[in-house]
Design brief:
Structural class of chain A: alpha+beta
Distance between the termini of chain A: 47 Å
CATH class of chain B: Alpha Beta
Radius of gyration of chain A: 33 Å
Number of strands of chain A: 24
Number of domains of chain B: 1
Structural class of chain B: alpha/beta
Number of helices of chain B: 7
Strand order of the largest sheet of chain B: 6-7-8-3-9-10
Number of strands of chain B: 10
CATH architecture of chain B: 3-Layer(aba) Sandwich
Radius of gyration of chain B: 18 Å
Order of helices and strands of chain B: EEEHEEHEHHHEHEHEE
Shape of chain A: globular
Largest sheet of chain B: 6 strands, mixed
Oligomer: heterodimer
Largest interface: A-B, 20 and 27 residues
Helix content of chain A: 40-55%
Mean pLDDT of chain B: 90
Largest sheet of chain A: 13 strands, mixed
CATH superfamily of chain B: P-loop containing nucleotide triphosphate hydrolases
Chain lengths: ~800, ~220
Amino acid sequence: MPTLWQDLVYGARMLLRHRGLTLVAVLTLALGIGANTAIFSFINSVFLVPLPVRDPGRIATLYTSDFSGPLYGASSYPDFEDIRRLATAFEDVAASRGASLVLREGDESFPARGEAVSGSFFSMLGVRAALGRPIQEADFAEGAAPVVVLSDAFWRRRFGADPSVVGRDLHTSNGKSARVVGVIAPGFAGLTKIWRADIWTPLARDDKRSSRGLRLIARLKPGVDVVAAQANVDVIAQQLHDSYAQAWSNVRGEPRRLTLLPEKLSRLPPAMRALGVRLGTLVFGVSCLVILIACGNIANLLLARAAERRREIAIRLSMGATRVRLVRQLLTESVLLSLTAGAASLLFALWLKTLMRTHLIPAEMTGLDPRLDGRVLAFTLLLCLVTAIVFGLAPALEATRPQLTSALESGGRRRARIRAALLVSQVALSALLLVGSGLFLRSLSHAYRIDLGFDPQGVVTANVDLSPTAGGEPQRRETHRLLLERLRTMPGVSSVALASNLPLAGTPRAGVRPEGYAPQPGEDMEVAYSVVTRGFFETMHIPIRRGRPFGEDDERADARTVIVNEAFVARYWPGQDPIGRRLVSGADTALEVVGVTATGKYRGLREDPMPYVFYPHAQRYRPGMMLVVRASSDPSAIARTLLHEIHAAAPTIPRPEVRPLLLIADNAFYEIRVASTMLGLFGTVALALTIIGLYGVVAYGVSTRQREIGVRMALGAERRDIRRMIVGQALSVVWIGLLIGLAAAAGTTRFVVHLLHDVSPLDPLTFIAIAALLVAASAASSWMPALRAARVSPSSALRYE
Amino acid sequence: MIQLHNVEKSYGSGAGQTWVLRRINLEIRAGEFVSIMGPSGAGKSTLLHILGMHDSAWAGEFNFLGEPIHKMSRKQVLELQKKNIGFVFQSYHLLDDLTVYENLEVPLSYRDYKKSDRQAIVSDILDRFQIVAKKDLYPNQLSGGQQQLVGVARAVVASPKLILADEPTGNLHSDQGREIMELFKKLNSEGTTIIQVTHSETNATYGHRIIKLRDGWVVE
């Protein structure tokens, strides 16, 4: 222990004495460690931190498979009751569903993201109220007064943490009210890591077995694992199919399934989790490569210092120090260096985390707020120790080689070889990373060139949901109509419409029966749709290929018209004229096709041409619609007037957010954009680190080769010969690293092929461009030391013989 | 071959000038073997580097083979040097990472000889200096005498008219030193002009005459 203390004190003195080296090393490492810490904080927050509930290891989410096949679907209220009654593997089963509200205080309306929950939801999760009480079974009794429970964050944000809010009535904007009975303890904000619930209300009973919108959550009995519980729900699924064959069959007539996922796998919706895992693995892997490159730089710096410390080490060895003792001393210095960098890296990590939160995470994902908690700090500490060993061990072993004192020259050559090997590794890692960046950037550029089937440029959107307004459907129809009428005459507005769903922003599906088409047994006849008003196609610049867009005639409630896209025609009426043909949707009477639009992208960029149906709003009225406005000039200039008009038409709805359609369409590019941004960022850092490393190695090489350069000049070398030699030798190392890196890239990029868009993982242009970039950057970075080398005076270099 | 007229060299140091060479006037004819002697700090090596055209920061007139070095551009001087001068160093200064063969090839590569010509010339030199067996060895695998032998071979490989040797036997024991001096004598007898810097009176006797320097002045 005393010797360790000695090593620490001596190590600290060495770091202070060599301030320049310490500063460069700390900054380089802080960059690498900080990036890793920031990314780990996201991984930790999403994948590692359990929900703040009692014994989360026994919590599991239960999914009912969807009609069209996917496993992770929602459940119905009757199913919830049956499962709760039949299951033997669970202590309890609870249910929740999204139930956002618009609350009203005085003249002000404000939205609250809410969940409607079953009576045992909080007690089963073991979540307590900090004030008052949570929702409980008694709130579901006949005649019980409506109640609401607030989240801690919402209570603080909206009510200034006023305890007297408990017992007060909250009013919704459609005139109803509910009494606040409690504030939930801090930390708990719902069942996913993505969205934070502001309020909870009692879940209303819905006896329709086909109405599936519930998320079921269960607590396993002690001693029952997920496998055993899955076996139990398999039996229940079979029983439900036996009892309710139609509701419990999918599109192919197979029984629906129940799937149980443990809490740790259901913190994100399953599709989002898969995306998170893909992106998380990619970005974390890339940040690890960056830190390895940074380690290469530090190792090179320390190797240079090891050469300068030959005398000190020789003296220590001659005084009887063992090699292990000296290695330990040098590693202690590395650890101190790394810990200093680790401390500095936290600032960088905080900055990067905020940057990523702001620019890479969609704003609506309010629940995703990574923190530098104990686990993240432990990770940073571990990373510091690991990096200290990675960059410190080779220089420490090299510096303490016993034969150093007797074979300085061969020691110098060996160090040069180690430095070259480190450089080769750095270049290889950089090449790998840059090829990845290049592929993703090319993917992104290809993605942005995809024809979406509409033009988001110059269009703004706003959510105009009239559900919270007083009055019935006729009043709401009139409000929507008046709003559109006023906006159409507004200066700066080119066209305007309403749509229930915008492309690339979530698309519901409904069953259709096209006239004359005989479905195959088990064929999925659900087709994606949107309900739109007149002007939608003009506003969105969706081309009408045949027939006509919706007009004033289609705004009559008795009109029975519909517009389909070309993919619909190709699938159900191939080679036939669709205009005038009919289709039946749901219980409607037959609808006549009056137009055919071009096929666009509706769910994602990678989708195959997808049949799509547009219904007129007048025939399928719904109060919650998105307003789309095409501006004739600058779209941001009309936002204020737009808000004014919406408020004038519907003063009781919360002030909506006016968002460019580009921003919504951008969601489709989310995965590729995040991957490109992160790889581009890390690729740039890797390139910079490699260039700095190469510069350091070449500059150090030049400084130790003055005599050799002098000799060469004395033997007739001209300055250009020396420059060519220095740059050529640097490039020979770069070429080796480059070839290894490109080979590694060729072998590994296929693992990200599912993230690439329209670019081969072996895209020759990217590989060639990255090779050229690295060679050019390397030549540039070795040029300065080469210039210095060429200025060596042979008479000075050879003077001291 | 060489005429120096009032050649001077000094360094600016603090308040004034530090003179290294003062008003050097001398003539060396082709075929001569000249020894430059003097105590440490007399300016011997500096004079040798000026003669070898490694140093251009001096004043005065320097004619080499009838060409006025003091009026020529750096590039012209370098061409003249590459064509006519070979260098032998006290510490051999072989390039550590190159074999004997490659060390001998270096001066030729800087003179743009073709590869086939380089091979022929180096083979001939290896043969002449009887070091064929050593051609694939690295400098640290040779004795000091063998290294200096290679050093001399490297100096003559490009067939210079003048060899400048800075204490060529300074790091060798007497037998090895004698062999090197005999080699210089033989090269001189074959027509190569040799100028050596030496502290050794014995080595100086191999030459035709001695130029003595003290405090930057030619004293004899």
